[in-house]
Amino acid sequence: MQKIKVWKNSMMNLTEFVSIEKEEMTTVKGYITGEGYEKPWQVNYTLTLNPRWEAQTVFIEVMSEQNYTISLHKNELQQWMNEKGEHLAAFDGCIDVDISFTPFTNSLPINRLQLTKGEGQDIKVVYVDVRNGVVKTVKQRYLNKGSQIYKYENEDSGYISELIVDKDGYVVDYPGIWQQIY
Fold first, then answer.
1. pLDDT given for residue 13 in this prediction
2. How does DSSP classify residue 133?
3. Do 47 and 31 touch, CB atoms closer than 8 A?
């Protein structure tokens, strides 16, 4: 079963098209294009998720003034590995991936955690800062406020937002930044 989602960024001139193909494993292909931070951007990513919404692979291709790719995957012990097969110990305990240029990756912990109204949880994620190509761990917190609203906190930066999701847990409004248009 395939789902298509499209978001428009209200801060920058960016649009994202996402294809979500659910089979035994879910394959997510995202395409972000436009202009932001006074640069052109074409960001393509592919995520593989297991049935529990846990990221298993991530591949990101960035084309801008500088081009680069990021390729990570989990081994049989659920440890993150780079494209050379090297264990990335700094990412141990990270289940989710958060890619800075997309609202889609906020849907991973929302769907995986299945928080009840009033329940919150701290998590550690593999965070990809597309703007500068940095990949690092970040502490985040999600709180289900009810009525399909989740309070999102980046505990490292202090950033807080309230995300509105649809019945399937996909972000429809990331206030002031991303709005789902399809």
1. 97
2. T
3. no
